[in-house]
Amino acid sequence: MQVVGYMRDEKLFQKAFGNVMRPQGKDIVRTWLYYSLLRTLQLTGKPAFSEVWVSGHVVDDKGESMSKSKGNSPPPMPFVEKYGADAMRIYGALEAGLGSDVRFSEDRLAGVSKFMTKLYNVARFISMFPIPNPIAFKNLTPVDQWILAEANALVERIVPECNLLDFHKPAIEIRGFTWNFFADHVLEMIKGRSFNSDNAFTESEQKSAWFTLHEVLKIISRALAPMTPFITDRIYRELYDENGIHGHSYPSFEKTWKSDLTKHTELLIQTNSGFWKFKREAGISLRQGLPEAYISEALKPWTKDLQAMHGVEKISYGKPKDDKFVEVTLPESEEVIYILPPVEEKE
């Protein structure tokens, strides 16, 4: 009470009292929290806080409480210096939800640090392309509409948890989307259209790709900002707003960002994995071109981008009649694609 000016600074008290959130550990709920609530109610007849945010403890990898006497409580600064403050922050969110203990593991922290590196490398790649004037969703290519619809679905999943100030599930969702979907599949797939070095795409298709890449990076950065305030702020200052990211609102769900193509997302991911699987098993480079391939007709809207991504000269649909094609079963699926192996050059 004294901190907010009770009976000392009426102006401060009226401004600061009541409409605040109290963050605290779970170990002092029945002491400091209960006492603060009771005493404040006795003095003012009002609740002391509008919200109470209760966190768990950081424990060792065996789940035991950390203490100097046990020798299992290393100082935090060496880890901050080695892996970065952002990695330390989001590590806690990734490991546990509100009220649950965080088991500390340097190996897992190192893995989280790699995600921070991945995010920065994604931003560096996207920074190679100009930021075009805003393009209406309906004027984007169907593939880019699909990408933004998937980003929009991510926002829809994470906002309810964020509103509860529990960033555990949002952290997991954002990392999975950024690394496993956006970096591994989207960037690789529309990289060819973004560079358009062989003029296989129109100028409007190229600019659509540029706009989409920058728009998704903005969404990811703003979604991560409460958990990783430093790296996201740097990305935003260098690319989008010299005043930084923290004056911008959290991403919100866009009702018009919808695409029927999202029902084929898993098939697309599996198809990409099928191409990579074939090239690895054939002992050829992932950059090696392919003469022809047959894929599901459901993926027809992605044809040009898939050709650029996997270096396929011709993509057809269904099943070939020629027995020279290799049948490739897609990972975690009963679907198959058919690939015509490249002709080996005679020495």
Structural features, described:
This protein has 347 residues and is an alpha/beta fold. It folds into three domains: 1-55, no CATH class; 135-258, Orthogonal Bundle (Isoleucyl-tRNA Synthetase, Domain 1); 264-340, hypothetical protein PF0899 fold (2-Layer Sandwich). Helix content is 49%, strand content 10%. The chain has eleven helices and eight strands. The protein has helices spanning 10-16, 29-44, 77-83, 85-95, 106-126, 142-163, 168-195, 203-224, 229-239, 265-282, 303-310; strands at 21-25, 51-55, 58-59, 102-103, 290-295, 312-317, 326-329, 336-340. α3 (77-83) packs across α4 (85-95) and α4 crosses α5. It is elongated, with a radius of gyration of 26 Å.
At the fourth CATH level, what is the homologous superfamily of the largest domain? Isoleucyl-tRNA Synthetase, Domain 1
- Overall pLDDT confidence: 93
**Poorly predicted segments:** none
What's the story with the biggest beta sheet? 4 strands, mixed
Quickly give the structural class: alpha/beta
The level-1 CATH class of the largest domain: Mainly Alpha
Order of secondary-structure elements: HEHEEHHEHHHHHHEHEEE
Global outline = elongated
Distance between the termini: 86 Å
Helix count from the secondary structure assignment = 11
Please estimate the helix content.
Answer: 40-55%
- As a whole number of angstroms, the C-alpha radius of gyration is 26 Å
Q: Biggest sheet, strands in spatial order?
A: 6-5-8-7
CATH architectural grouping of the largest domain:
Orthogonal Bundle
Query: CATH topology of the largest domain, anyone?
Result: Isoleucyl-tRNA Synthetase, Domain 1
Tally the beta strands.
Answer: 8
